[in-house]
Amino acid sequence: MKLRRSERMVVISNYLLNNPYTLTGLNTFAEKYEAAKSSISEDIAIIKKAFEESSIGHIETVTGASGGVIFTPTISKDEARTIAEELCDRLSESDRILPGGYIYLSDLLSTPSILNNVGRIIANVFQGEKIDAVMTVATKGVPLANAVANVLNVPFVIVRRDLKITEGSTVSVNYASGSSDRIEKMFLSKRSLKPNSRVLIVDDFLKGGGTINGMASLLTEFDSTLVGVAVFADNTQAERDDKFAYKSLLNVSEIDVKNNKVTVEVGNIFQD
Q1: Which of 48, 57, 62, 81 could form a disulfide with 67 if both were Cys (CB 3.0 to 4.6 A apart)?
Q2: Is the pLDDT of residue 158 over 80?
């Protein structure tokens, strides 16, 4: 397919955006668009400059016979903070208070543009880590984990609280629910996660921490490593004995049910 340079740069840019963290040889573009490798190299150099100046991402060139280019998505600190501050305003709405000290998040975590932006912010924090999979627990954390996994271009695995016959053989652990102090059980299909994986845990709302501790225990059953924990919102009022470090996009510092007031601030993900 022969294209003019301007057209070629558009389709190459689109390819890179949709295939992050993937090494692609220059020959792939040269053969597909019937252009010389030197022309493709010039295209990549222009795209690289534009991506970096716009904080879209970095393009790394790998030399050698098996070399090529790798695109790593990024987001600027200013853009990320602006997004978080807008979400603070949305989350501070008084009608979001739910029984038990929870906050209604479903409308935010079902909006594609919000999920995409939050996925970019979380993925940017962990871009320096080698991550093989993103883990979450069913069901509210699934869209968020999917968004992060899309940006990192890795699979995401879903831990379940009930046994599904469609999961096949499973591994289970008991964990103490941080919100109710009950002993509960969670399951993960043996086929979902390869042994010795490096895993990022993502969840929607952190309160007692029991669910995340349970998922961390599951990782040991798969001989896998916990790379990090990221949550959309953290209830800093909740009492818990954290056994893990975590990054939060938003901090819910006050839930005043009596006065129907919610206080939300940007999370520790913005701390240097």
Answers
A1: 62
A2: yes
CATH for 5-73? Answer: 1.10.10.10
Give the chain's radius of gyration (CA, Å): 21
Residue type, 173: V
Q: Where are any strands of DSSP class E within 190-246?
A: 198-206, 225-235
Q: Are 95 and 45 in contact (CB under 8 A)?
A: no
Residue 191 and residue 159 in contact, taking contact as beta carbons nearer than 8 Å: no
CA–CA distance, 201 with 212 (Å, rounded to integer):
8
- pLDDT digits 0-9 by tens, 218-233: 999 999 999 999 999 9
3-state helix, strand, coil in the chain (%, to 5): 40, 30, 35
The predicted pLDDT at position 10 comes to 97
Of the candidates 208, 254, 205, the one whose C-alpha atom is nearest the C-alpha of residue 106 is 205
Q: Which fold has domain 77-270?
A: Rossmann fold (3.40.50)
CB within 8 Å of 28: residues ≥ 6 apart: 68
CA–CA separation, 21 vs 73, rounded Å? 8
Taking the whole predicted model, whether its pTM rises above 0.85 is answered as yes
